[in-house]
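Subject: for your reference before the review

Hello V.,

The reviewers asked for a structural picture of the protein, and I figured it would be easier to keep everything in one thread rather than splitting it across files. Below is the amino acid sequence we used in the manuscript, unchanged from the supplementary table.
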Amino acid sequence: METGLEDPSRMPEESSLRRTPQNVPYQNLPHLINADGQYLFCRYWKPTATPKALIFVSHGAGEHCGRYDELARMLTGLDLLVFAHDHVGHGQSEGGRMVVSDFHVFIRDVLQHVDLMQKEHPGLPVFLLGHSMGGAIVILTAAERPGHFSGMVLISPLVLASPESATTFKILAAKVLNLVLPNLSLGPIDSSVLSRNKAEVDVYNSDPLICRAGLKVCFGIQLLNAVARVERAVPKVTVPFLLLQGSADRLCDSKGAYLLMESAKSQDKTLKIYDGAYHMLHRELPEVTSSVFHEINTWVSQRTGAVAGARSPP
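And here is what came back from the structure prediction:
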């Protein structure tokens, strides 16, 4: 499905020249053009019936939206139209790998995509789903438009930085390095801390669209900026949300989940902690992933009038 064709910023003759980082012409792919003129690769999962709601899926740092296919297919079984894009600097979208001028670019692009979809499907409620860095993007997107969204699902969201990576000394060192060596790599993500499911870690390691260059100092600074923005935004959050968190997550501190629950003004908020689980709860040990899919299925069903269990999780 192409979308955004009615967008006046779209220039078909230019899209025939522009190519993804993988050298595929954008004219052959669903895409949108953001406010900076960058081409973003998009994905759409359409239900067989008339959609009851829209839901945007926001992926995490270094990955891409294709990794949410199973979740998206489950949500289409609830008659939701699921849409997503690879954030700037990720997957099949333009931009230096894991580089963004300001974290707010991610939020701005999500709102642009939401507006395009709402123009095509007026009157439908809109939900947000985000994992890790994508969770921070979702929280800030919802905070930017109070009352606009009907709910958000957060899987191991970035609310607080990991204590291991965010000591005062390391933050200070990163800020100094950002002035002199912004493109210095801090090393790749240790994939073994993503999931206890070795098969899922192997899938991650073999995915050609995953960025393996390592976290650059400049991107690390943007993640720290995101945490600071989320901390300021959380007390203003009123949107209903479902929050899923692993107790042994070494990338996004589980204390952040408790902070969000305590500080958000939302009247409708649910937290489920998975004891011993790592970061990618939707790609964890089978019993955890099955529970995560069930929780999301039930929560979304109750807020859209869909029939829970319409499609079984993998």
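For the response letter, the relevant points are probably these. The chain has a mean pLDDT of 88. The first strand starts at residue 31 and ends at 33.

Happy to draft the paragraph if you're swamped.

O.
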